[in-house]
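Re: the pair you flagged

First of the two:
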Amino acid sequence: MLISSSKMFALVHERIKGLVSLQFVNIYIGRFHGITEAALERLSQGLKELNQLRKIIINCHHWKIGDNGIKSIGNALKRLGSLEEMSTDFQECERISDFGVKKFSQGLKECKGLKRLKLSLSGGEEITNKGLDSLSEAISRMIYLESVEIIFRINGENPDFRLRNLSLSLGKFEDLKNLRLCFSG
């Protein structure tokens, strides 16, 4: 039986809601053709219910995911204040712009207890220094960070000034043990 991605994520959403004591979620969204942002939004609705979640991994490698998809993940993060570890990889998500990164960052800044953060954003033609500014502001609120890995593609701009802002944010973390920053244009 063939099932559409929207129906699949609706099923996952319904099942996740009942798993309130879940502490780890690993989601991989590959290149299968039926994925839509609406399906990702449904999945994010289920994630909002997991208020005991400590670790989340989201790998989303699909060109159809854009601002609404990453925004829905950000909205879910607003309710996941107990997260200690997060890895998000939005490679090949060519429709993500500064708007989506800003909305994602608004949720990310509510995850103040994060100890380990890995974030990869690349493939979007509309991600600029403004997106990096949003992330820098969100990261600056995470005082317990021990490990940070950021892979960020900035198109058409020189990231030097914004990298200084991010570096100043990272410099205040007393517990930081691992740092990896990769920026390309």
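Second of the two:
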Amino acid sequence: MKAWSLRTKSTLLVVGLTTAGIFLASTLHHRFALRALKEEVRTRAAYVATELAFGITTRTELEDGVLLAAQIRSTLAARPTLRWIEVYATGPAGYSASPPVSKGAGRPSLNLPPRRSPPGRP
């Protein structure tokens, strides 16, 4: 077997280092971009929750399904990127979910069935 020339060795070294550098840069970029996206989604969700909670001043307003549905519909209309909003109420047994309000073909309704998670997801 013939030994590799210096040119072949240096070419393979440059190709290997370049490939490793590109892979490392892509991995770091992916991690930073994913972290920034998660933070942005959390910030937007907190803002929407704060905005929704700011409109509810008494417990009777929270328990009034028609008023709550109207507030959620107006929030969904104002923010086209939202698909649904779920409201959870606390009680002696812990959290209980109200039926979700989602965008549909017609008017969203508070009487929709609960959303089911895909298999394998909580």
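The chain has a mean pLDDT of 76.

-B.
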